[in-house]
Amino acid sequence: MTRYRNDPGAVRALVRADSVHRDVYVDRELFDVEMEQLWRNAWIFVGHDSQVPLPGDFYSTAIGREPVIMIRGADGSVRVLSNRCAHKGTKLVSAMHGKCPANMLRCPYHGWTYRLDGSLRTVPLKSGYDGTDFQSTQAAQGLPEFASVNYRGFVFTRLASTGIDFHDYFGGSLSSIDNLVDRAPEGRLEVAGGVLRYLHDCNWKMFVENLNDAMHPMVAHESSAGTAKRLWQDAAPGTPKPMVIEQFTPFVNDYDFFDKMGVKIYDNGHSYTGVNFSIHSQYSSVGSYERAMIAAYGEERSRQILAEARHNTVYYPGLTIKGAIQAIRVARPLAVDKTLIESWTFRLVGAPDELLERTTTYSRLINAPTSVVGHDDLHCYKSIQEGLAAGVNDWISLHRGHPPAEEHPIAGVYGATNEVPMRGQAHAWAKFMTAGMTQE
Amino acid sequence: MADHHSPEFRLAEFVYLEARLLDEKRFDAWYELFTDDARYWMPLTRGQPDGRMHTSLFYEDKLLLKLRIERLRHPNAFSQQQPSYCQHVLQQPALEQVVHSAAGVPVIAAEFMLNAGDFLMRTPFMYVETQLDTQIFLAGIAYHHLTSIDGTLRIRMKKIELLNCDAALPSIQLLI
Q: Are strands B119-131 and B94-95 parallel, antiparallel or unpaired?
């Protein structure tokens, strides 16, 4: 029995102006529908173009359930292709990273080959198809190429063949990517420092919502950040402040701090916390980096770029970025209660090594499967997943800061303890879950 | 028969003790096994050259180890409300030979920066961590760079090469 597939009314009824139905997090059919609708209608981050610097270089991943290859073509452009042979569906590449020998993709099963733009190149013993309908099929066209945009190195795709335009989808939220890239004296990034892959036993939304949740750090992270703060208070006077103390202790700042940092809301579920300042604002400056920035941009522009210390930007639904420390986290949904969180870091090209060390340190301390901060976050997400399995109350409250007349969140700046980012995400969820549905 | 007086035997006993202290959660005694400048390192990738320009799973100095130990005892360490327990199963630790180039530069185990009189032990292991109904198994090789401080063995670096360091991992909440 299907309750939600092809019933846009039933899906929309799960999201109210100030609350969300628990099925959004725990219902298996809804997860399937998310993979068929939301993760195909929305623009999803695939990878960074520095991962595929030369023609024939590829990176393979999955967008929802769709295996894809991000590949640099002979013409130098980056494409997002289906990673399944047009013949029987074998994945053409299974390595995460690699280079295509002889600039072609070759299926490991029957040896079909494709050019770097996905077009079918050769089929062994092709005469076997003589007199058949093969030429009129989709398979004869080769590998489907998905719509993609390379925005300042960040490659996004929309799997659905029609739908919202990239710039209409992200709008002004792209300013967070701009600020991240502008932080490189040479104006470009390179993926560096490794990718942490942390398995989360929870729905992907627990993680994504948490990134703009300013009411949890002082509670959930008391045992880790609070202990760091106490250990630092016990340190002998004159001890130089270690980077790890700088990174841990702001997590237990008070409610006033977290509220006043501010949250900016955009359409379609995107938002960022840290409009005015953030937990990253008080990091020690690195003199050689600031000099490189001034040399590249001049005093005034350099100051503007570095004055931004955005906390987390959510590019709904799948990408979150931390521009101030050139780190991103990618949510990859695996099942209704299983999500892979990848943490990537970047080298700011032209910046000294200290900047890379700062971001690899942060990722290790906060985002690793071994992180004392991550452990308590994930503990809460798992607990929510278990708690919502029970129907004692079907509705999850998102009332904090909700004005009675607000039907859906209005773009603008709010106090960051407002639950407006989650209301915005829920609204976008219903919109892109139903955008491709046919009314029955 | 093992020679109970051989240096190898004494070094192996030290490695067994270190794992046992973790399994028994005797963290303060465990912490004292490390030199003041020690590192506890679990790289994220195979052959990872360092822990600064590349993210690691652990790259802890004594401050971070202290933080981890104190946090495990914190009443609001929510992920440990239901406590985790661990068990190390060690293969016999072997004294590792450090290979030098003709110029006297170490080419194998170069990352440990061994001084005269230091030792490097290599110990394949299995590690089990359990939290009520959830149990994880990990395997790898532990390297202990040991040094003598005032006649007492101490760890200058414990490096853990996790067999599946590149896997999507669940929470690892205790110390390997």
A: antiparallel
Enumerate the domain spans of chain A. Answer: 46-158, 167-433
Query: Which residue in chain B is spatially nearest to A202 when comparing CA positions?
Result: B170
Which of B54, B166, B172 lies closest to A360 in CB terms?
A: B54
Specify the pLDDT at position B106: 63
pLDDT single digits (tens) B7-20 = 889 999 999 999 99
Rg for chain B, CA atoms, rounded? 17
CATH class as words, domain A167-433: alpha beta
pLDDT tens digit sequence for B47-80: 998 999 999 999 999 999 999 999 999 999 999 9
**CA–CA separation, A51 vs A138, rounded Å?**
30
| Beta strand extents in chain B (DSSP E only) | 34-43, 56-60, 85-90, 94-95, 119-131, 134-149, 152-162
Interatomic CA distance for residues B137 and B131, integer angstroms: 12
Strand, helix or coil at A32?
A: helix
Per the CB < 8 A criterion, the answer to whether A24 and A205 are in contact is: yes
Q: Answer whether residue A111 shows pLDDT above 90.
A: yes
Structural class in CATH, domain A46-158: mainly beta
Nearest CA of chain B to the CA of A104: how many Å? 27
Q: What is the pLDDT of residues A215-269, one digit of tens each?
A: 999 999 999 999 999 999 999 999 999 999 999 999 999 999 999 999 999 999 9
For the stretch A384-397, pLDDT in tens is 999 999 889 999 99
Q: What tokens were used for A181?
A: 């890239």
- The ipTM value here is 0.95
- Residue A253: which residues within 8 A CB-CB, separation 6 or more? A217, A218, A279
Torsion region of B165: left, alpha or beta (phi above 0 gives left; psi -120 to 50 gives alpha): alpha
Banded pLDDT at A440 (limits 50, 70, 90):
very low
Using a CB-CB cut-off of 8 Å, the residues of chain A touching B52 are 353, 357, 360-361
pLDDT of res. A1: 66
CB B152 within 8 A of CB B17: no
**Euclidean distance between CA atoms B72 and A293, whole angstroms:** 42
Do A376 and B64 lie within an 8 Å CB cutoff? no
Length of chain A: 440
